[in-house]
């Protein structure tokens, strides 16, 4: 059976059996099961009321812990752990716990913070794109677009205006082979990674050389890079024009109606009540004219400019004209910036679902590769890359030309993974937005390596991460304790529960033997 199929299967090993040695002696035996001191200390340290340096506190906790283990033993004796619901819940938790260990939280936080810091600056830029001829691109397909893009770049470097060149080419070229456009406000994670990285690395008025993205070669001119002014929340009263064909008279009449409402507000009339009665915005009028938070580019420009001009909560604007009519705007709130905590989960989720996942998990990937002595065999990879430049890496043509290649492609620890195992992987898991075939293959290759090192690490969690074992044990016992306690005590009337608890403890104390290692318990401080 192929190693790749073995490695990529999720380990289904059971609970860890704790080693019994001098460094981790047995603290007690309950119902025939030895409890290691490490487990006792781990649970005790999670209870803020326990002081392991105080004999009385230790003695009290020994009694509590013993009773806890007796209840767990009773649950196991009744077969609670064999119920399908238990198995499903426990396995779900264990997978979640494994995922928390199979990650580098500090590295992920750093990657998320990097994106968050970019939200503090807003670039504006223009672009010219020489598009690729199709959806699947090989080296030969890139030559003509690149040469055309390079010629355009040289024209601009030699003094022609970026805007004029872009607009004329976009008009002249057939089939939209050249595109021209402007992005007035760019926020992180809105465009492909290559383009975003380029824009944020530039200075105002700088023009970039041709940059390859998934659709073609971009030439970019950065117009400005301004501080993010934050977000605003306003309420408004809209006086619509009331006609499709606007005349000066219609516009002036709407302005006068809007201004009369403003005078009423300045004179002390209630803004919210006027909005409910007179605003032409049927949605916001029901909320007294209240709108959501907006940032740059979030709404009509003239409206936005007027809102940003208001300085203090409660300030009222002059009538502001938009294509909808005239607005009286009241400032409700301004936020200089959105706190990291409010953006963190959204940034993380976006990164997980896009090519940015490689940035998010980069430190984990690199640590795992180092931990498992990763070696890449460049000649074997180059052979696959040459094939990928003739046949798109997700196509069956690529697979048929690679599935019998046997050269070692990578090594992890003492295991070599030949080319055909990657061919099998890429054939079964083609997940990338890359349009250039070697780029597509490279992204899938990085996933291939990550999946292998992750499963190798998953396989040694119980051996190398004592805390993982403790947390698994804690949850395993916790589910059993909940189920048995609910059955024996908590499901009964409240006035009966204390007596039932006492009766149950008396029953299981007589039913299951307990042996305490008093020598270890007395000297517990030396193990801390």
Quickly count the helices.
22
The strand count comes to: 14
**Fraction in beta strands:** 15-25%
Chain-averaged pLDDT? 92
Largest sheet: 4 strands, antiparallel
End-to-end Cα distance, whole Å, is: 46 Å
Outline the structure in words.
Helix content is 51%, strand content 16%. It has helices at residues 3-7, 37-45, 55-77, 84-101, 105-118, 139-157, 162-172, 193-200, 248-266, 271-278, 301-309, 340-352, 357-360, 362-371, 378-388, 396-400, 419-428, 437-459, 461-464, 466-490, 494-511, 518-522; strands at 26-30, 33-36, 121-131, 178-183, 211-212, 216-227, 231-240, 290-294, 320-322, 325-335, 375-376, 408-412, 415-418, 514-516. It has a four-stranded antiparallel beta sheet, with helices on both faces. Helix 3 crosses helix 20 and helix 4 (84-101) packs antiparallel against helix 20. The longest helix has 25 residues, at 466-490. It is flat, with a radius of gyration of 33 Å. The chain starts with a helix and ends in a 6-residue tail after the last helix.
């Amino acid at each position: 059976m192929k190693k790749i199929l073995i490695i990529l299967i999720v380990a289904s090993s059971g609970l860890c059996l704790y080693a019994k040695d001098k460094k981790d002696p047995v603290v007690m035996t309950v119902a025939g099961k030895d409890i290691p001191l490490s487990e006792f200390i781990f649970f005790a340290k999670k209870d803020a009321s326990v002081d392991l340096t105080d004999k009385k506190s230790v003695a009290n906790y020994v009694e509590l812990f013993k009773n806890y283990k007796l209840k767990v033993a009773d649950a196991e004796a009744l077969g609670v752990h064999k119920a399908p619901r238990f198995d499903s819940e426990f396995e779900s938790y264990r997978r979640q716990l494994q995922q928390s260990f199979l990650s580098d939280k500090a590295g992920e936080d750093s990657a998320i913070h990097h994106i968050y810091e970019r939200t503090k600056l807003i670039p504006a830029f223009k672009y010219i794109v020489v598009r690729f001829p199709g959806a699947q691109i090989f080296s030969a397909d890139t030559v003509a677009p690149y040469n055309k893009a390079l010629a355009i770049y040289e024209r601009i470097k030699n003094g022609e205006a970026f805007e004029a060149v872009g607009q004329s080419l976009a008009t002249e070229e057939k089939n939209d082979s050249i595109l021209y456009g402007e992005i007035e406000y760019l926020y992180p994670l809105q465009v492909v990674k290559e383009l975003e990285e380029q824009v944020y690395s530039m200075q105002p008025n700088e023009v970039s050389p041709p940059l390859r993205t998934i659709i073609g070669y971009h030439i970019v001119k950065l117009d400005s890079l301004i501080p993010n002014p934050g977000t605003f929340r306003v309420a408004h009263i809209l006086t619509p024009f009331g006609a499709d064909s606007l005349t000066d008279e219609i516009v002036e009449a709407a302005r006068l109606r809007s201004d009369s409402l403003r005078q009423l507000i300045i004179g002390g009339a209630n803004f919210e009540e006027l909005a409910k009665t007179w605003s032409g915005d049927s949605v916001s009028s029901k909320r007294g004219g209240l709108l959501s938070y907006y940032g740059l580019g979030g709404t009509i420009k003239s409206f936005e400019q007027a809102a940003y001009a208001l300085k203090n909560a409660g300030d009222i604007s002059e009538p502001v004209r938009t294509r909808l009519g005239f607005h009286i705007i009241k400032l409700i709130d301004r936020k200089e910036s959105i706190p990291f905590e409010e953006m963190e989960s959204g940034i993380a989720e976006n990164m997980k679902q896009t090519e940015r996942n490689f940035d998010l998990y980069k430190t984990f990937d690199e640590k795992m590769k180092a931990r498992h002595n990763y070696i890449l065999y460049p000649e074997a990879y180059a052979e696959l890359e040459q094939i990928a430049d003739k046949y798109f890496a997700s196509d069956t043509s690529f697979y048929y030309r690679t599935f019998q290649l046997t050269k070692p492609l990578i090594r992890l620890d003492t295991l070599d993974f030949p080319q055909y195992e990657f061919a099998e992987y890429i054939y079964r898991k083609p997940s990338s937005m890359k349009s250039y075939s070697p780029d597509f293959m490279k992204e899938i290759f990085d996933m291939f390596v990550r999946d292998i090192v992750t499963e190798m690490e998953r396989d040694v969690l119980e051996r190398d991460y004592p805390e993982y074992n403790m947390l698994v044990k804690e949850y395993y016992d916790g589910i059993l304790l909940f189920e048995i306690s609910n059955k024996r005590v908590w499901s009964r009337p409240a006035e009966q529960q204390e007596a039932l608890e006492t009766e149950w403890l008396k029953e299981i104390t007589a039913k299951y033997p307990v042996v305490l290692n008093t020598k270890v318990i007395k000297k517990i401080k030396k193990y801390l």
